[in-house]
Amino acid sequence: MRAWLTAVLLSCAAFQTAAQEFTTLKGHGGPIMGIAVSPSGQVATASFDNSVGLWAGRDPQWLEAHDAAVTAVVFGPDAAVISAGDDFTVRLWRDGAQSLLGQHTAKVTSLAVSPDGAWVVSGSWDGTVRFWPLRGQGDALQVKAPGKGVNAVAFDAAGTQLFVGTNAGDLWRYDLSGTTEPMPVVRHGFGINEIVTGDGWIAYGAVDGGTRVIDMAGAQIADFTLDRRPILSMVYHQGSDQIAVGDGEGYIMIVDTQRWRITRDFRATRQGPVWALAFSPDGTVIHAGGLDDVAYAWPVETLDSFDATMGQERSFLRDPATMPNGERQFMRKCSICHALTSGPSRKAGPTLHGVFGRAAGAVQDYKYSPILTGSDIIWNEDTIDALFDEGPDHYIPGSKMPMQVIAKPDDRADLIAFLKQATQ
Length: 424
What we know:
It is a single chain. By secondary structure, the protein is mainly β. The chain has 2 domains: 286 residues, YVTN repeat-like/Quinoprotein amine dehydrogenase (Methylamine Dehydrogenase, Chain H); 105 residues, Cytochrome c-like domain (Cytochrome Bc1 Complex, Chain D, domain 2). It has 5 helices and 28 strands. The protein has a 4-stranded antiparallel beta sheet with strand order 1-28-27-26, with no helix packed on it. Strands 2-3-4-5 form a 4-stranded antiparallel beta sheet, with no helix packed on it. Strand 26 and strand 27 form a beta hairpin.
């Protein structure tokens, strides 16, 4: 009887593991910069295409109000979504409607919701850390700035302490029950990109590949630094005692926080970084995003049995030697934001189809910067050449187009020749 029962239990366990399959979420028009999973299992993805995807199965609801890449997303109380990005703003979404919580003066890099759900904290490259109220009306609060660009923010489990990592390599602690002066915890020396906290410990990941765990006083508990850099994403799942760490070389490392040992070290991408990670509510699935327009998810238990999957959806990852120079310039400088085909596109920029002879700011239904509304620029060989010779910030100051310069005249000429053929 005991042997039979054991066999049945093993069979059920095997069935549950098999039922957890590799999945993808497709629909974005740019790389995935952030992922969050709600307690109910709903997934939110933040993308370079200026939008947040809120997924019910494989059908997304698009949350669109940002004017630049969305770099951070978290779930708040009552299934609210909070997003932030390169347009300096922090936005709150409830039932598809959005409100502006507030604005920094530089890119917003990180968000963290307080354990009681009363506040969301944002960190920015403007060097500030701000608290935005999530329940009822109230004014934003700002603690004393750590003085350098902020890359990461994280509460402790009680919500009485806030930890902040900066691009100067400092890890600061704020005692929220007392003074708002930042207190140093550790000085790493290289930019600290990610922070997670657990029971009596802090884990952080840095630009130099440092992945370390320290106690609340800064003493080292464990060092998981490998020869891979930079650390770009990190998430902790308390129920399963796991930390997942993503790096610039495409690996996802899983750490057991009970034994402080690496249990999985999975190459997730063929090329490119792992920018975003999130666990499922039960900790059995890890979601990831990177250069692809797709979010991926694998069962943690069988992670090492999969081949590298990410890093193959983007055309600019093709071997440059296989492309003529004009196409190569387009892939490097333009393809992440612009489609060449007609019709609607989920990319961050308007389609380039029919661009020659078209007035700037004229693609229907695309939300342009105010500077391009009614612009007298007509796109042709001369204006496109000037755009990439001077750079968008000089040629069209105030536009949303990121800084792109093509210094060599021959490269600009080859790009223009490619565009004339490819955008007809």
